[in-house]
Amino acid sequence: MPTGSPPIPAGPATAGPAGDLAPAAARRAARGPRRGSNERFPRAERLAPYLLVLPAVLVIAVFRLYPLALGVNFSFTGDGDRNGQPVGWDNYTALFADPLFTASMRNVGLLVLLLPVAVAIPGLLATFVYLRVPGHRVYRSVYFFPAVLSPVIIGAIFNLLLSFDGPVNALLGAVGIGPVDWLGDPGIAMFAVVGVHIWATFGMALVVFLAGFATLDASLIDAARVDGASLPKVVRHVIVPGLSRTIQFVVVTTMIGMLTSMFGLLYVMTGGGPEGSTYLPEYYIWFQQGQMGRPALASAASTVLFGVMLVVGMAQIAVLRRAGRED
Question: Which residues of 69-78 are buried (b: 16+ CB within 10 A; e: fewer)?
Fold first, then answer.
């Protein structure tokens, strides 16, 4: 090139590779992200949780909520000559005028009062197993055995044990205590049936408590022991706050079980007697539906039972949450 020639200006056409890349990157940044296959993945991720829960929601809606709505609607129709005809609140008025139903509702109140005992027994046994106190191997070996037995078998066994001339009264007589009519005294029969139910079902709650202990920070218990805390203080200030969620779950499920899973024991052990003292809403529902042929009245009783379970469950959760915050 001659020495006096003017320099050639560098433009886009003559820029090197680095000069081409920088403007291209700037143009892509100005346009924003490309609408391609990568944009669809965030949307799919947002929809994935809804798709996963959809089958469960459909099952609950079809097999739970829809029958519940049908039952509530059926409770406002009549029985017998007025079968299928709207009767308003007549069934509910008849319910609360029936001494058997009012007795069953009083027994629901008794179950609520006995609920802490039903929860404390498996909770304490799970604590013994977790802390390896003397005898914990025995609890671990036999705690689940009653849960695998049929309520009919359990009822038949305890009918023999609790009969007036049975082994339990024989043991009481040996220590100088008179025989007790466990299943024939209206003031005692319900307590006897509830005690049998707690014995028969505490294994499931104990398993839940043991699962909760697996999430508990063991270092907190060790620190409390090092500080000289006694077992009751460890339970009160470390274990109970650490298992608050587990306790809430066990309280609600145990209450539901006591209200809806005692039919077998009641049918075999007392048949609702003596004098209707062991009636529960579920037994009353079966009696009206199966024995008296009054399905609409039974539907009204089912609706009341559902309302009671909902209110009691929500109240228990609220109380336990408040207690957990205070701790």
Answer: eebeebbbbb
* H-helix segments, the chain: 17-31, 40-60, 66-74, 90-96, 99-131, 136-142, 151-161, 167-174, 189-213, 218-226, 231-234, 240-242, 244-260, 263-269, 281-286, 295-326
Here the tokens at position 9 are 């200006």
Burial class (CB in 10 A: 0-12, 13-18, 19+), 317: middle
**Per-residue pLDDT tens over the stretch 3-59:** 455 555 544 444 444 445 555 555 555 555 555 444 555 777 888 888 899 999 999
67-79: per-residue pLDDT in tens? 989 999 999 999 8
Q: DSSP string of 121-169?
A: HHHHHHHHHHHT-TTHHHHHHHTTGGGGS-HHHHHHHHHHHTSTTSHHH
Count of residues making up the chain: 327
Find out whether 74 and 294 touch, Cβ atoms under 8 Å: no
For residue 83, the cross-strand partners are 78
**CA distances from residue 85 to 62, 76, 88, 96 in whole angstroms, order as listed:** 25, 8, 9, 21
What torsion do the CA atoms of 115, 118, 119, 124 make, to the nearest 10 degrees? 140
CA triple 286-200-194, angle to 5 deg: 60
- Residue linked to tokens 């009696």: 287
Sorted by sequence, the CB contacts under 8 Å of residue 227 that are 6+ apart come out as none
Domains of the chain: 80-326 (1.10.3720.10)
Q: Which of 13, 234, 32 is nearest to 128 (CA)?
A: 234
Instruction: Give the number of other Cβ atoms within 10 Å of residue 321's Cβ.
Output: 13
Inter-residue contact 269 to 155 (CB < 8 Å): yes
Contacts of 142 (CB under 8 A, 6+ apart): none
- Other Cβ atoms within 10 Å of 95 Cβ, number: 24
